[in-house]
Design a protein that fits this description.
mainly alpha; 10 helices; about 0% strand; globular; membrane
Length: about 280
């Protein structure tokens, strides 16, 4: 059964939209908030190192290298707890170290060069780390499914994936033919919420680092881990996907509104200072 052209078009449009979102947001607010590209680049690097390498290496260690630990992880509760904690610890330790370095560097230069230690630094960093997450775990994966759908319509999917075991090939085939336009909407909701969460966590961490708080690291780890719980429960079939998406929307919408208000005030403050 081929994938409907309308479904394929929806997936392509959604993927292009989300791929451009962090870039457009950065360019849109760069001048009003005086954003520096270096925190954004640092955020990209931190996600690549701590999420794509360290976190995945830790998961590989838990699942493959140690049979005893792998056995424990077959229990859904243990899987959820270990999974969300590994994500929270790896990503927030990386964010904490990066922001400590950023704050020390910018504080030393603030009086001499006017480098800002205000919240827009967190926005630039959050767009970097959140944008990297969106691309690595969202856009590139979505592109893969779009290619699979095109190959399915051309009757070439089986030949392209001939090296896979037959059961894996059949699972991919069933997932491809079950794609619907709603999948594009789900992708936008999930990845958009994740980007909002990354920016919110960056603001939390930046304010804690700026205040000299040690407690901000465990607080951020706990917050990040809790945000991952619905998705982890969905992987264990304990929570329907529609419930997971509803939870994320209910959290992300008010958080996004709060962030918009925060950075709008920052832009107004900076504009008034420049006029003065």
């Amino acid at each position: 059964m081929p994938v409907a052209p309308f479904t394929l078009a929806c997936l392509i449009v959604a993927t292009l939209f989300m791929a451009a979102l962090p870039i457009v947001l950065y360019l849109r607010v760069r001048k009003p908030l005086g954003l520096d590209r270096r925190p954004a680049i640092l955020g990209i690097g931190v996600f690549a190192l701590f999420a794509m390498l360290i976190e995945r290496g830790l998961n590989d260690l838990l699942l493959r290298v140690n049979p005893t630990l792998a056995g424990w992880l077959t229990h859904p509760t243990v899987f959820v707890i270990v999974g969300v904690l590994s994500i929270g610890i790896c990503q927030e330790v990386g964010r904490f170290l990066a922001m400590r370095w950023l704050f020390a560097r910018r504080s030393a230069k603030e009086s001499a060069t006017g480098a800002s230690t205000r919240d827009p630094v967190a926005l630039a960093y959050g767009l970097g780390q959140g944008g990297a997450e969106l691309w690595f775990t969202g856009v590139l994966v979505q592109v893969q499914w779009i290619v699979f759908a095109w190959l399915e319509n051309e009757g070439k999917l089986g030949n392209a994936l001939s090296g896979l075991p037959i059961d894996a090939l059949m699972r991919i085939h069933l997932l491809v033919v079950s794609l619907t336009p709603a999948a594009a909407g789900v992708f936008i909701l999930e990845r958009g919420a994740a980007l909002v969460f990354q920016i919110g966590l960056s603001v939390l961490m930046w304010r804690g680092v700026r205040a000299g708080s040690v407690a901000v690291l465990p607080l951020a780890i706990a917050a990040h881990a809790l945000l991952e719980v619905p998705a982890a429960l969905s992987q264990t079939q304990a929570l329907p996907l529609v419930v997971v998406d509803t939870i994320y929307v209910l959290i992300a919408v008010p958080l996004a509104i709060g962030l918009i208000r925060l950075f709008r005030r920052e832009a107004q403050t900076m504009s008034a200072a420049q006029v003065g």
